[in-house]
Amino acid sequence: MAGPGTLRPPLARGESLAVLGYGLRRRAGAPLRYLFLGVFMVWIAFPFLWAISSSLRPADRLFTPTPQWLPDPLTFENYRWALGEPTFLIPLKNSFLVSGFTVLAAVPLAALAAYSLVRLRYPGKAAIISAMLSAQMLPTMVLIIPIFLIYARLHIFNTIFGLVLASTAWTLPYAVILFRGFFSTLSVTLEEQAMVDGCSRLGAFFRITLPLSLPGIIAVSAFVFIWTWGDMLFPLILTKNIDTQTAALSLFTMMQSTRGATNYGGLLAAGVLFTVPAVVLFIAVQRQLLEGLTAGALKD
Amino acid sequence: MRAAGWSTQGARRAWEGYLYLAPAFAILGLVVAWPLFETLRLSFLDVYLLRGMGERAFVGFDNYLRFLRHPNAPVYVVNTLIYVGGGVAGTFVAALGLALLLSERIALRAFWRGLALIPWAMPITVTAMIWKWVLDGQWGILNYLLTSLGVIDGYVSWLSSGTWMWPAILAVSVWAMTPFMFVTLLSGLQGIPREIYEAAKIDGAGSWTMFWRITLPLLRPVILTVLLISVILHLREFAIIWILTGGGPGIRSTTMSPLVYVESFRHFRMGYGAAIGVILMSASLLCTWIYLRRLRVER
What we know:
A: MetI-like fold; 14 helices; globular
C-alpha cells in the first residue's frame, strides 16, 4: 500500500538516474542519445504540428502535390467554419455537459468510497479493491451490449444522463484507486482531533480531509474529465442523434461523411479546437495526475 | 492516539464503511455488474434484434460453436494476435527507450517529458484523424516525405494496403499507447537507487553491462506489470482500429473487439456478439487475474 513517502513523483525536478551510466556520456554516447531523442520527439510531435499547420491554410493549399511546410497565406477560415458549424458546436456543448456532470458525479462518490477504504475497518476490503481493479480492466465493448439493452428498457437510451451514468461507472474504479493513494498520505491525527472536538466522522472528512486533499481532487477530476472527453464508444452505442452526441463521436461521423472528406481543413480545425481543453487541462495538472496514475497501476 | 470508545464500536464502523461505499457500488452494479451477468446470459440466447427484443430462445453453446466453426474465426484470432503482439511489443520498446533517455540528465528534460505525454490526453478520434491525414494515400505528407527521400517509389495507401495496413495501424496505436507505459516505467526507473550504479561504476562496469545487470533485473516487476496491463488494453481496443480502417479492407484488420461491435450493432446478432465478447473477456480476465496475483505478492 502506498504510504507517506512511498509515492515518488515521476517528474521530480533535478532528480537524475544514470541508467545507461556515466561512461556512455563521456564516450560518444551523447550525440547518439540526442539523435534517438530527436527521432522520438519528431514521431510524437510531428503529427499534431502538421495537423495544426494544415488547419491554418486555405482549402486550395491543403491538397497540393508538393506540400507547404508552413501555411502561406495563413488563414483562420477553417476555424471560423468549425465555430459556425452546428454539427460540431452542438456535440461540443454536449461534450462539456457530459464530461462536467461526470466529474460532478464521479469525484464525490469516489472520494467517499476511497475514504471508507482508507479510514474505516471492516472485512472484505481486499476483495472490494480487487473487484474495482478488475472492473477497470473489463473490455468495454463486451459490456456495452447489455448496457444498450438495459438503457432501452430504462428509457435512458440517447440521453445525456445515460452517458453521464456510464462514464461515471467507467471512471469510478480508477478514481477510487487514485483517491485512496492521496488519502493514505494524509495523517489521521487532525481528523481524530476534530472528532474529539465533536465533529461527526463525515463532518471531519468534509472539513479536514477534503480540503487537505485538494491536489488529489484536482487530479482525479482531470482524469475523469479527460477520459470522458475523449471516449467515443459510449456515445457511439448509447446515442443516436446530434442532440446527445459528444464531439468525440461527431468528429468521427464527420470524417466518414463526404462533406468532412472534402473539407479536411475544417475537420482538422474542429479536431484541434476539441483537443485544446483536454490538453490544456492535462498540462495544468500533469504532475499531480501522473503521480497518482503510476501509483495506481503499480501498487494494489 | 485513538480516543477510547471508538475501537469498541467496530460494528458501527463496519456498517458506516459499507454505507460510504454503497453509492459507488450502486452505480458499478447497474453499469458493470448487471451487464456482466447479462452478457453471460445473452451468450447462451438467440437474440436477433431485427426480429424483436422479446424473442429469446435458449440455445446452449450454439453461439460459441458458431464462432469456433466460422471459416473466418482464425482470421479474427490471428488479427487479434498481430495487434496485441505487435502493439504490446512496439509500445514497450518505445516506452522503455523514452524512459531510459528521459531519466538521464538531458537538456530540456522536463519539456521532453511533457511532450511525450501529450498523446495520452488527446481524444482518440483526433489522434486517428491527424494520423489519417499524415497517412493519406494521395495527399498524405508521409508519402511525400518518403518519395522525396527515395525510400519508396510510388505513393502507398498505407491504411488500405494489405502489406502496410498493420504497420500503419500499429504505428498509430503505439503512438497513442506509449505515454502511459512510459510514465510507469519512468517511475520504476526512479525507484532504483542511484548508489547501485555508482558502485557498479567503481567496479568498472560499462553502461551496457549496467543496463543488463542492474536496470533490467530491478525493473522486472514493473515491466511485467505494465506488459500485462498493455495486453489487456490492446485486447479491448476498438476505437483506434475502427476509426483508422473500419476493420478493413474486408475483415483484414478486424480484431475481436471491433468484431463484437459489428456482430452486435451492425448485424444485431446480440447473442452471438455476446458469445464472442465472452471469449475475448476470458482472455482479458486471465491477464487481470495474473495482474492481481502479482500485486498481492508484491505487497
